[in-house]
Amino acid sequence: MKKLLSALLVTLSIPSFAAHFSFTYFGNEGGFGNQNYYACSYVEDQAHMYLEMLGATQVEVRCSGGIGPGWYTGPVNLDATYDLPVVTGAHVDILEISGDAFNPSCGLNVRILSEILKTTPYVQVLKKDDHCPFADSNYYYTLNVTR
Question: What range does the domain containing 123 cover?
């Protein structure tokens, strides 16, 4: 019992580093006249998934706008706060993230990832293709994640 309590106190005393990002996404890939709208549930789920993949904890994601009641459509506003992991350097993962015509929303996903990557110094982009002329364009990232 004493060892368990000691381990718990050590675990609770490890500092975490808070991070935050927010942005408004208008969804205008594909040139003039093309507009893509997203439901906030989708936007929140994508941001939450990427943050957890990169080791974030205590993730809180809030979205407003998007596709709403009464056929309201507009840009999405995304706000995320989370704790970054303590990096020991003991482990390195290569992580691949990609999307294609079967997993559309290229511009939105690339924007979420780019905002997250600004806050995660322990993640290095090894290779990427994040050009999104259309919502169903292919995109990919190969990331080096130090843990």
Answer: 16-146
pLDDT tens digits, 13-53: 455 689 999 999 998 876 666 788 999 999 999 999 999 99
Helix H or strand E encompassing 13: helix 2-13
The amino acid that residue 51 corresponds to is L
* Dihedral sign computed on CA atoms, order 25, 28, 30, 31: negative
C-alpha distance from residue 1 to each of 11, 14, 70, 81 (Å): 15, 20, 57, 35
Q: What is the DSSP string of 86-113?
A: PP-SS-EEEEEEEE-TTS--HHHHHHHH
Residue 121 lies in a domain: yes
